[in-house]
């Protein structure tokens, strides 16, 4: 019988809980694609329509690299905007290239459906029962939430670490440890253990540091390579970073916060703009109210919801005298160009800080 080899696109560090989830609910081999590199985006761009957004190209590149390494089942979980329609397009492109595989979509009518995921897993592993599925679904969501909470602390402090790479080294160790967890109680214990360890990392933080909020499209926010490691670059300037979008927000919090965010931004928007468009308007207002020094808005080139949100965010920032800079990424974006604009932003924020 042919061995089932499942793969999926990269998205930050979330390959850890995704592999954990799939390995406990299927008898299949789980293949994590090679780490995203320029080769990934070159492959994706070569076989993608020019007008599609960057996440489509990254994911397609991930799929091709995974298929070349032997994957025969691909998992797709895009949604929230036109990306919810991309699975079928990517499947056709890959079949035209001659690949033999099965595509499993976790999205139904633009949203991730718990029962649909169970049915898809049942097709891969008929032995899996619903109670085991629910247990590992909860287990995996808890792992994601633990990761996201730790990452919030890291962003707040990594720019001030005394010993270079202290946070990254410990985070890598934590993720490896999380992947080996046997039960939920053990996961909770490990979370508190690593939370304590992160707080023990020595930092040299000034009393009133420059604080920058990152808002924008969800994939570009969560996948560091697609934003040219903008968070990592900011940290080198001793800046405290806040980023809103993570899987905890998208899967758990967003539906509960929509009305609150619409109310917060009622002077600027009256309805949702698709994906995270309206969310980012509300976030711009939040960052001003919380005393942040500047905003970085990031998106892939051609992202329709964010293009609609940008003029509104610009109005919010002008009304509140809040500096904002926009980065739009595509396969031709220059790393040096990003670096130069970031340096200019930091210089301006430092001068503003000096003037109070």
Description:
The protein is of the alpha/beta class and 356 residues long. The protein is built from 14 helices and 10 strands. It has helices at residues 15-25, 38-47, 54-68, 86-96, 114-124, 130-157, 166-179, 184-200, 218-222, 230-235, 247-264, 277-289, 304-319, 335-354, and strands spanning 5-7, 29-31, 73-76, 102-105, 107-108, 111-112, 210-216, 239-243, 294-300, 324-329. Strand 9, helix 13 (304-319) and strand 10 form a beta-alpha-beta unit. Helix 6 (130-157) packs parallel to helix 8 and helix 12 (277-289) runs parallel beside helix 13 (304-319). The model has no long low-confidence stretch (mean pLDDT 93).
Helix-strand category: alpha/beta
Indicate the overall shape. Answer: globular
Uncertain parts: none
% residues in beta strands = 5-15%
Strand order of the largest sheet: 2-1-3-4
Query: How much helical structure, as a percent, in the residues?
Result: 40-55%
Q: What Rg is obtained from the alpha carbons, in whole angstroms? A: 21 Å
Count the DSSP helices. Answer: 14
Which series of helices and strands comes N to C?
EHEHHEHEEEHHHHEHHEHHEHEH
Total strand segments: 10
Q: Could you tell me the mean pLDDT? A: 93
Taking the alpha carbons of the first and last residues, their distance comes to 69 Å
Main pleated-sheet profile: 4 strands, parallel
Structure summary:
This protein has 356 residues and is α/β, with parallel strands linked by helices. The protein is built from 14 helices and ten strands.
What's the layout of helices and strands?
Elements: E1 5-7, H1 15-25, E2 29-31, H2 38-47, H3 54-68, E3 73-76, H4 86-96, E4 102-105, E5 107-108, E6 111-112, H5 114-124, H6 130-157, H7 166-179, H8 184-200, E7 210-216, H9 218-222, H10 230-235, E8 239-243, H11 247-264, H12 277-289, E9 294-300, H13 304-319, E10 324-329, H14 335-354
Parallel strand pairs: 1-2, 1-3, 3-4, 7-8, 7-9, 9-10
Antiparallel strand pairs: 5-6
Helix pairs in contact: 1-6, 1-7, 2-3, 6-8, 7-8, 11-12, 12-13
């Amino acid at each position: 019988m042919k061995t089932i080899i499942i793969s999926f696109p990269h998205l930050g560090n979330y390959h850890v809980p995704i592999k954990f989830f799939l390995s406990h609910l299927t008898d299949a081999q789980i293949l994590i694609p090679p780490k995203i590199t320029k080769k990934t985006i070159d492959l994706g761009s070569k076989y993608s329509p020019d007008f599609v957004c960057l996440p489509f190209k990254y994911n397609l590149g991930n799929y091709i690299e995974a298929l070349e390494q032997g994957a025969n089942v691909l998992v797709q979980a895009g949604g929230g905007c036109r990306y919810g329609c991309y699975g079928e397009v990517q499947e056709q492109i890959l079949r035209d290239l001659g690949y033999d595989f099965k595509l499993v979509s976790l999205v139904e009518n633009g949203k991730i459906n718990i029962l649909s995921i169970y049915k898809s897993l049942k097709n891969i592993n008929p032995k899996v029962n619903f109670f085991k599925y629910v247990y590992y679904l909860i287990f995996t969501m808890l792992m994601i939430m633990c990761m996201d909470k730790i990452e919030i602390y890291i962003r707040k402090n990594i720019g001030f670490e005394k010993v270079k790479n202290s946070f990254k080294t410990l985070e890598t160790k934590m993720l490896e440890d999380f992947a080996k967890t046997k039960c939920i109680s053990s996961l909770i214990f490990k979370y508190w253990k690593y939370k304590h360890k992160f707080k023990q990392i020595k930092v040299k933080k000034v009393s009133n540091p420059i604080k920058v909020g990152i808002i924008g499209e969800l994939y570009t926010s969560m996948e560091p390579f697609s934003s040219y490691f903008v968070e990592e670059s900011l940290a080198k300037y001793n800046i405290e970073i806040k980023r809103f979008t993570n899987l905890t927000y998208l899967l758990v919090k967003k539906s509960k916060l929509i009305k609150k965010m619409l109310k917060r931004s009622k002077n600027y928007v009256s309805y949702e703009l698709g994906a995270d468009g309206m969310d980012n308007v509300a976030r711009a207002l939040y960052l001003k109210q919380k005393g942040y020094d500047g905003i970085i808005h990031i998106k892939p080139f051609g992202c329709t919801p964010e293009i609609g949100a940008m003029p509104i965010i610009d109005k919010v920032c002008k009304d509140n005298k809040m500096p904002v800079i926009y980065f739009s990424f595509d396969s031709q974006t220059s790393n040096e160009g990003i670096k130069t604009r970031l340096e200019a932003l930091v210089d301006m924020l430092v001068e503003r800080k000096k003037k109070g």
